[in-house]
Design brief:
Elements lengths: L5 E3 L8 E3 L5 E5 L2 H4 L12 H5 L18 H15 L3 E5 L2 H4 L9 H16 L3 E7 L5 H5 L6 H18 L5 E6 L1 H9 L11 H25 L3 E6 L3 E4 L5 H23 L5 H8 L11 H5 L5 E5 L3 E6 L15 E3 L15 H14 L5 E5 L17 H19 L4 E7 L18 E3 L6 E3 L1 H12 L1 E3 L7
Parallel strand pairs: 3-4, 3-13, 4-5, 5-6, 6-7, 7-9, 8-10, 9-12, 12-13
Antiparallel strand pairs: 1-2, 2-16, 10-11, 14-15
Helix pairs in contact: 3-5, 7-9, 8-9, 13-14
Catalytic activity: Hydrolysis of terminal, non-reducing beta-D-glucosyl residues with release of beta-D-glucose
EC number: 3.2.1.21
Protein name: Beta-glucosidase
Length: 475
């Protein structure tokens, strides 16, 4: 795929604009627990999110993913929507508890059958399936045995990867091991705002390692089974010092960057944890859980690095500031509150930060192909009097971040695709159903789907493989 960006010109103002490289992949993404529902059907076992969402005060208004978008029963309708939008690819995740209800041992063939049907439906509509093996819904029985703090979970994950490849490997080309291990480790085991709700720094760092080890073991198993493309998706943070001229702020950014980025990227792409992060982890726990040879396993070759991006972080030195709950050891570091335009979930909108992040990864880890595997915004949109959803602010968000991608490509970044988050409104983890990220509106009472204006805008972006000079197509 060429890494150039072409500029169109025409007497028609709507025909002028910029194009993405030939072969650029356009898709949308979802996650199993957020959309599938059917939580107690066809042999599915409980996940940590089933347990967590039933604990009082954990999830907004006591919402659960028991029904969600009922995708388990409505996948044919949903795939038809994808085809109508012109998606070339669909990134979905497998619910591990559907495949192995206890996390290990016997395989639930009815769970495999569902993903068989979904995969075949996608291929039948000309949509390339991109599978994520783990998007946070760990089987509860594995959590009862230690979850990601235990080496057993990493080993079980590799077995599960083999099971899935044996069933879908003849049709699925791209396999993503983990989605956002930062969230699984820090939100799940440090701040406890996500399942399993643990609040212990030592557990968080053990989870970091065993998630990465699980990736390495699964990547090796997939490769040995003949997988065509193996990847992992991170949510690297675009971390900046509030004042680049203040050494304290620069050092604060180094620490936060280490916890958010280098602790994952370095072992994955360089084969070793950064020395400063080893020292940082050792403040909370001995590192005996990192065994000889583990880093070499984690360093298993990948074909593409998935990047999920939503918002930047600005940090400064502030003596006496307590540590952030999801960043153990950040005492004396302040995270600036979002400024300027923000989304409904309170995240600062700054597309240029995405360009800077992609440039940085390209510079520090040269030769790494990337895809944007999630990018999007939550807004409180609903049907207008005409029954349609006019989400202009979401279109502006997408447009700005796609232009940021084009900027990075023009700098030489090997960026190969973009997946909008999310295909449809869904269960947004601890926010329940209160936040809507979808380009398709879902009425949770009737399960009626209505494509928003952003869906039609994205449809045209895909058709053109590019953007107009005006930004919002069709105005």
């Amino acid at each position: 795929m060429t890494a150039t960006v072409s500029v169109e010109s025409s007497d028609d103002p709507l025909a002028s604009g910029v194009r993405f490289p030939d072969g650029f992949v356009w898709g949308a993404a979802t996650a199993s627990y957020q959309i599938e529902g059917a939580a107690n059907e066809d042999g599915r076992g409980p996940s940590i999110w089933d347990t967590f969402s039933r604990e009082p005060g954990r999830v907004h208004a006591g919402h659960t993913g028991d029904v969600a978008c009922d995708h388990y029963h409505r996948y044919v309708e949903d795939v038809a929507l994808m085809a109508d939008l012109g998606l070339a690819s669909y990134r979905y995740s497998i619910a591990w508890p559907r495949i192995q209800p206890d996390g290990t041992g016997p395989v639930n063939t009815r769970g495999l059958d569902f993903y068989d049907r979904l995969t075949d439906e996608l291929i039948g509509k000309g949509i390339d399936p991109v599978v994520t093996l783990y998007h946070w819904d760990l089987p509860q029985s594995l959590q009862d045995r230690g979850g990601w703090t235990a080496r057993e979970t990493a080993e079980a994950f590799a077995e599960y990867a083999q099971i899935m490849h044996a069933r879908l490997g003849d049709r699925v080309r791209t396999w993503t091991t983990l989605n956002e291990p930062w969230c699984s480790a820090y939100l799940g085991y440090a701040s406890g705002v996500h399942a399993p709700g643990v609040r212990d720094a030592a557990s968080a760092f053990k989870a970091v390692h065993h998630l990465l080890l699980g990736h390495g073991l699964a990547a090796r198993a997939l490769r040995e089974a003949g997988a065509q493309s193996v990847s992992i998706t991170l949510n690297p943070s675009a971390v900046f010092p509030l004042d680049e001229n203040k050494p304290g702020d620069v050092d604060a950014a180094r620490i936060v960057d280490g916890l958010s980025n280098r602790i994952f990227l370095d072992p994955l792409l360089r084969g070793r944890y950064p020395d400063d992060m080893r020292e940082h982890m050792a403040r909370f726990t001995d590192l005996s859980f990192i065994r000889e040879g583990d880093e070499a396993i984690i360093n298993a070759p990948i074909d593409v690095l998935g990047i999920n991006f939503y918002t930047p972080s600005y940090v400064s030195a502030k003596p006496g500031q307590p540590a952030s709950p999801d960043a153990p050891g950040t005492e004396g570091i302040a995270f600036r509150k979002p400024v300027g335009p923000i989304t409904d979930i309170g995240w600062q909108i700054e597309p240029a930060a995405l360009t800077r992040l992609l440039d940085r990864i390209h510079r520090d880890y040269p030769g790494t192909p990337m895809m944007i595997t999630e990018n999007g915004a939550a807004y409180p949109d609903g049907p207008a009097e005409d029954g349609q959803i006019h989400d202009t602010n979401r279109i502006e968000y997408f447009d700005g971040h796609l232009r940021a991608c084009l900027d990075a490509i023009s700098h030489g970044v090997d960026l190969r695709g973009y997946f909008a988050w999310s295909l449809m409104d869904n269960f947004e983890w601890a926010e329940g159903y209160a936040k809507r990220f979808g380009i398709v509106h879902v009425d949770y009472t009737t399960q009626r789907r209505v494509p928003k204006d952003s869906a039609r805008w994205y449809q045209e972006v895909i058709r053109r493989n590019g953007l107009t000079d005006q930004g919002r197509i069709g105005e």
